[in-house]
Amino acid sequence: MTRLRQWGRADQAVRVGPRSAVVLGLASLAGLMMFVWPLLVRVEPQSMQHGPDAPFIFFGILPILIAIVLAELSEGGMDAKALAMLGVLSAVNAALRPLGAGTAGIETVFFVLVLAGRVFGAGFGFVLGCTSLFASALLTAGVGPWLPFQMLCSAWIGMGAGLLPRRVTGKAEIAMLVGYGIVVAYLFGFLMNLWFWPFITGAEVPYHDGHISYVAGDPVWENLHRFAVFTLLTSTAGWDTGRAITNAVAIVVLGPAVLATLRRASRKASYGVAPTFAELPERIPERQKP
User: Which CA distances in Å does 72 have to 61, 113, 133, 168, 266?
Assistant: First the structure.
């Protein structure tokens, strides 16, 4: 006889345990500091932006990913089948991204990330966000100092999708995911502007009368105000809105089918089921011939 032990929900490939939650929390805190530290200390704008430190940030992300995967494996929250699904979805996202490549804000990578994070959980979504952006950057020659920051933002998008309320189903779930896709589209643009804004000079636009560049040594709130105006004028109405529309349309049109497919694959694969084997019963002696 075989006894099965279930980990987490039947439609989730990854269950975030205490150890994984600690790793995710620390990784998110460290990642947030990567974006906001210029606002907390005095830095001088430079043309190199994050070029010199980007490789160190990238190599700092890799151990975090390895730690998350190992924590999930050791806690029983991720098995070989979940890792295989991670590879498949990373490849799918890498293939989808060139279809938009960010032109006019059209990004075809995030809706899959949102749906997969919703089905497979926060830990899976975090790792998928990093691996998807890394694979797509290699495919589209998009490797640069911005890549570590894109990987972290995408990881947060996938993780956040996995943390959404689980009881919401049906049309309400699609509406919730559409709203989430719109919000994260603007947050992604906000953070991706923040990673380079303090390091550029002359951040002015001809249709705005005012100073919107980073000022070294100014109070945090004054610099944040300038940055908010900079983002609103240069990104929000264009690239970010295009990304939000792409996410919303893709989730409305493809969301129900993709969610059903991912959940069906998860159930059939029996993610997180740990088999245990009992001893075989003693063989019944053959009936002696008369």
Answer: 17, 19, 21, 25, 17
Give me the mean pLDDT over the 133-155 stretch: 82
| Beta-carbon contacts of residue 130 (< 8 Å; ≥ 6 apart) | 61, 65, 151, 152, 154, 155
Smallest Cα–Cα separation from 191: which of 151, 137, 162?
151
- Give the CA count within 13 Å in the CB-facing half-sphere of 99: 11
- What end-to-end distance do the CA atoms of the chain give, in Å? 33
**Cα separations in angstroms, 33 against 38, 191, 224:** 9, 11, 15
pTM: 0.78
CA of 29: how far to CAs of 26, 35, 227, in Å?
A: 5, 10, 21
Q: H-helix or E-strand containing 3?
A: strand 2-5
Of 131 and 48, the structure prediction assigns the larger pLDDT to: 131
Q: Read off the pLDDT of each residue in 110-115 and give the average, rounded to a whole number.
A: 93
User: 156: exposed, middle or buried (C-beta count within 10 Å: 0-12, 13-18, 19+)?
Assistant: buried
Separation between Cα atoms, residue 170 and residue 72, nearest integer Å:
29
